[in-house]
Amino acid sequence: GLGKASGPYWLVPFQNYKTMCPYLVGSYEQVAAELAGYLAAGYRTFILDVPPDREELRHVGMAFAQVRKEARCQNYSRSG
Question: What does the CA dihedral 56, 46, 15, 32 come to, rounded to 10 degrees?
């Protein structure tokens, strides 16, 4: 449907000119996996929309924490 996400990207606000970019949505693990792809490609800066409240900011932090956790696990498995 119109409000459903396609993969980790929610395009509706972008398509309706409510924002300048698509949103990443899903579980922390799903969003972290997508963010990890950007990190693997060399991206180190992420521009975020202003979160509407503290709870949303906490969710953003949790997704990035998941990326860091997975990166540590992968680095350990390669070196240990």
Answer: -60
